[in-house]
Design a protein that fits this description.
The protein is mostly helical and 269 residues long. The protein has helices at residues 2-22, 24-45, 53-69, 72-91, 99-124, 129-154, 169-193, 202-230, 245-265; strands at residues 158-160, 164-168. It contains nine helices and two strands.
């Protein structure tokens, strides 16, 4: 299992680097497919709540469209569309017990998954977009990798035993160190790929790394809570050794939102 995890992780890293560096329509298509798969996994595991999947899928499409060709305001407008669509679809059958939970779960999908992937699209369009997306993707994965191995071999203090029994504070510390180191290194490498660009400075990379190191594990625990509620181990089996798309991208979804607004609102990247 560990060998499969490493091989699949390596292939994802190589493919991810190519797609992010290339940008263009390839980047949009890959992000859109991953977002659709993640949303499908979410609606599948929350099937007991009977989400109106069609409403979420339509809203996701418009969120991704505005993320690549529109504006952040358009993304938020498309998210708001989920509320109206979920109401229309759910209310079609008249008032029934559980409709509130059904609409809430429907809206949660685009709000969680759609917003994260829309931010990855918006981020790639920024002046330092390529560097930032490389940083958030590989910085998050570096943190996951360090946390996994440090927790596996040195972890002894449970971090959130009721949500994720295998997570430890030792693993978190290892992930924090790995994330910060990884982000600073990636920023330097990304800057070397674009010598004509100001790039992301070491101090900016350090701040971004700290944010990812804190927000990423929250995203992981967020998905763990949902999986505990619906009593599933993995969101899917799309990625051997890693589970589903949600299992691999849960931390990244949270990190992408945080880094995008950090970059635009505070760092002016």
């Amino acid at each position: 299992m560990l060998g499969t995890r490493v091989i699949v992780g390596f292939l994802l890293a190589v493919g991810g680097f190519f797609v992010i560096a290339r940008g263009s329509w390839i980047y949009f298509v890959v992000m859109a497919l991953l977002a659709l798969l993640a949303l499908a996994e979410f609606y599948r595991i929350t099937k007991p709540y009977r989400p109106a999947a069609l409403a979420g899928i339509i809203a996701l499409f418009f969120m991704l469209y505005f993320g690549w060709w529109g504006t952040p305001t358009g993304v938020l407008g498309a998210l708001a569309l989920t509320v109206a669509l979920s109401f229309i679809i759910v209310a079609w059958g008249g008032p029934r017990k559980g409709v509130t939970a059904r609409m809430a779960v429907t809206i949660l999908g685009p709000m969680w998954i759609g917003l994260g992937f829309a931010c990855l699209l918006l981020m790639r369009r920024l002046p330092e977009g390529m560097s930032l997306v490389l940083i958030v993707v590989f910085g998050t994965w570096a943190g996951d990798t360090f946390a996994y191995f440090v927790g596996r071999y040195f972890g002894s203090t449970p971090m959130a035993p009721r949500l994720s029994p295998k997570k430890t504070w030792e693993g978190f510390a290892g992930g924090l160190l790995g994330t910060v180191m990884g982000v600073v290194l990636i920023a330097l490498l990304a800057g070397a790929l674009r010598p004509d660009s100001p790039g992301v400075s070491s101090s900016q990379a350090l701040l971004i790394g700290l944010v990812i190191a804190i927000v990423g594990p929250v995203g992981d625990l967020f998905e763990s809570l949902i999986k505990r509620d619906v009593d599933v181990k993995d969101a899917g089996r799309f990625l051997p050794g890693h589970g589903g798309v949600l299992d691999r991208f849960d931390a990244l979804i949270f990190s992408a939102v945080a880094v995008y607004f950090l970059s635009v609102g505070f760092l002016s990247l």
